[in-house]
User: Which sequence fits this backbone?
């Protein structure tokens, strides 16, 4: 994981010297996600993310992004008196750390784009189980490889700021006999333009 992030930063920083004049964007956004089975019974909270983008030319950009998504679940079984006899609950955090590539169809005004991101999806969580006789708890931490095609557009507010809306479909590859995680994510945020001399 550390080697992946280090190599990614070296590649992006080195690319800044390839042009005499280039555009860099940094942005922040909120995220909403809808997960496919078996994670569809989890309750997804509003997430957030950070991104940076470097334009190799007026249409093509590469960058990095980091998201934080949180899901919770709670399942209860009641007896005839409506008392809880079995309860399972937990919380999961998903943190994708990815490199991105995007193609912008226009250079001014509203700028629609398509792209893809890929990288390491870090997961951690905790849960508990309780019935009339026992109570147990557990936690986990892991990392997976994933990728996501994306589509979106930017709308300028001024020469320095623009808002954007994008949608992506994430596929997180399982390990061994595990189950793949698939979800749709919508991001809405703002970017700041930096022009380098």
Assistant:
């Amino acid at each position: 994981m550390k080697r992946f992030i280090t190599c990614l930063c070296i590649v992006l920083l080195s690319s800044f010297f390839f042009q005499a004049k280039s555009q860099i964007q940094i942005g922040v956004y909120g995220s909403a996600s809808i997960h496919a089975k078996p994670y569809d019974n989890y309750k997804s909270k509003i997430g957030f993310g950070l991104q940076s983008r470097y334009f190799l030319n007026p249409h093509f950009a590469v960058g990095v992004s980091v998201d934080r998504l949180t899901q919770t679940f709670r399942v209860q079984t009641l007896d005839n008196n409506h008392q809880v006899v079995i309860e399972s609950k937990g919380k999961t955090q998903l943190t994708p750390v990815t490199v991105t590539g995007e193609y912008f169809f226009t250079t001014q005004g509203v700028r629609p784009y398509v792209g893809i991101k890929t990288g390491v999806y870090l997961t951690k969580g905790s849960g508990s189980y309780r019935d009339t006789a026992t109570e147990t708890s557990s936690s986990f931490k892991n990392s997976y490889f994933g990728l996501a095609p994306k589509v979106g557009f930017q709308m300028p507010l001024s020469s320095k700021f623009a808002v954007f809306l994008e949608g992506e479909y994430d596929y997180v590859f399982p390990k061994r006999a595990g189950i793949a995680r698939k979800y749709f994510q919508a991001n809405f945020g703002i970017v700041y333009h930096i022009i380098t001399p």
